[in-house]
Amino acid sequence: MSTFRFTRTAIDGQALRNELLDHHCGGYAAFEGWVRDHNEGHAVTRLEYEAFEPLGMKEGARIVEEAIKRYGVTRALCEHRVGELGLGDVAVWVGVSAAHRDEAFKACRFIIDEVKHRVPIWKKEHYVNGDSGWVNCERCAADAHSHDHDHHGHDHGHGLDHG
Amino acid sequence: MTASLKGLVLSGGRSTRMKQDKAVLAYAGETQLDRAVKLLQSRIKDVFVSVRADQAQEATRARHPQIVDGEGVEGPIAGIRAAQAADPEAAWLVVACDLPLLDASTLDALLASRDSRRVATAFRSSHDGLPEPLCGIWEPRSRDGLEAFLATGRNCPRKFLINSDTLLLDQPNPRALDNVNTPDEFQATSAQLAPSDARRALRVQYFALLREQAKCSEESLQTDAATARDLYAELTARHGFTLPADMLKVAVNAEFADWSRPLAAGDTVVFIPPVAGG
After folding, report:
1. What's the pLDDT tens digit per position in A53-73?
2. Do residue B125 and residue B233 come from a single domain?
3. Is the CB of A121 inside 8 Å of chain B's CB atoms?
4. What is the pLDDT of residue B30?
5. Which CATH number characterizes residue A43's domain?
6. Is A139 on the interface with B (CB under 8 A)?
């Protein structure tokens, strides 16, 4: 099975975690991105994710491979939801198992950051007032220089708490 | 010292699979031999056509300065050998006449990267990674090795280059050296090269904002657009896309591609708006 997948149904984090179990590993780090009820001052009611899946699966798998090489972790997986999501739904799941925790945390962070910037996935937010819009801020022309989540997290979080 | 360069268009093939003489097949009203000679002449002053003795009088070949194969060797390597015998001091830029997609930018890449200290400069096939002997520069120093190679009874120019000090380049246009050997391939390539049909049939898939603005998730179209950049401009005019090209990426056949990549008939193109996964 590919190390990067799309799913139309709820993400099962427990099942994904079980794929990472390995007796060589002393630790496991996972990240879940959730659908949040607000973004940039707008009350969000639901989201739609859409992906160009043939390329998305290739690029996603390349990111996971890069993370494994770069941090020397044992296993890593990422699954991204597509379709209609409600508040609290898991939009994306990343898990990494490794000999030691430091590499696991770093690889996990690397994967989610790269997925957000490189994989052809788009998100449409639906707001309380009936409007909707495609979120396309990150690494757009104006933002291309910046990739600093500590500073931009709150302003650029697109409906998920990890923005 | 770098040897001066002469051009050689190989036309001595027997065209057995095509069942007619390949050199005189016409694309856009011009025989492919004439096209190849003209292309080489755009870059090199002295260009010759390599022929077998029994082809010398054929009308298309007779229009051009010729070098006739010598005795004792068959196949394209006979043409290369005859050219080297005719001018052993020259380096020979050799191209087969049956490469209808060969373009000036491919020749320019070859000329720009030529290393005259090597035996030859050639492209790596985009199909199998092996040297393409029939679009390459054969330096004068290749001559002795070639004679020795022929003396062992072998005559495959590709094998010769594999076993020689050959500089191999990546093709700037991966289709430029596709050769046309069968009537079906000829028909497909003809359609691609016909002037009224510089138009190509492409499929475009749309996602997210572009899908909403195009009001469809995919369409098949005929276009004159040579590159993805031209195509996006054409489709922006038609669909009123609001995203400027510099905010997008482009994928051709489900892989990221350069905006300047030439589009080919049958390609599937996807324009990728700023992504927002996670």
Report:
1. 999 999 999 999 999 999 999
2. no
3. yes
4. 84
5. 3.90.1170.40
6. yes
- Indicate the DSSP class of residue B202: E
Give the one of A54, A92, A119 whose C-beta lies nearest to B275's C-beta.
Answer: A119
Do B116 and B248 sit in the same domain of this protein? no
Domain that includes residue B23, residue range:
5-183
pLDDT tens-place string over residues A63-116:
999 999 999 999 999 999 999 999 999 999 999 999 999 999 999 999 999 999
What are the mean pLDDT values of chain B's consecutive 10-residue runs (278 residues total)? Answer: 91 83 83 92 94 90 93 89 95 94 92 94 92 95 94 92 95 88 82 67 95 95 92 95 93 96 93 94
Distance from CA of B256 to the nearest CA of A (A): 8
- From A150's Cα to the closest Cα of chain B, the distance in A is 16
Provide the CATH number for the domain around residue B268: 3.10.20.30
Q: Within this chain, do residues B66 and B154 fall inside the same structural domain, yes or no?
A: yes
Q: Give a yes or no: residue A15 inside a domain.
A: yes
Give the residue from A127, A160, A2 showing the smallest Cα distance to B276.
Answer: A160
- Rounded-to-integer distance, Cα B218 and Cα B230, Å: 18
pLDDT number for residue A67: 98
Rounded Cα distance between B211 and B239, Å, is 10
Burial class (CB in 10 A: 0-12, 13-18, 19+), B196: exposed
Identity of the residue numbered A51? A
pLDDT digits (tens, 9 = 90+) for B29-58: 788 999 999 999 999 999 999 999 999 898
A137 to chain B, minimum CA–CA distance in Å?
A: 7
Co-location of B46 and B157 in the same domain: yes
Q: What's phi and psi for A17, nearest 5 deg?
A: -55, -40
Q: Is position A162 within any domain?
A: no
> What confidence score (pLDDT) does residue B198 get?
62
pLDDT tier at A140 (50, 70, 90 boundaries)?
A: very low
Q: Which residue has the tokens 């330096």?
A: B139
**φ, ψ of residue B246 in degrees (nearest 5):** -75, -5
Query: How would you write chain A as a 3-class SS string?
Result: CCCEEEECCCCCHHHHHHHHCCCCCCEEEEEEEECCCEECCEEEEEEEEEECHHHHHHHHHHHHHHHHHHHCCCEEEEEEECEEEECCCEEEEEEEEECCHHHHHHHHHHHHHHHHHHCCEEEEEEECCCCEEEECCCCCHHHCCCCCHHHHHHHHCCCCCCC
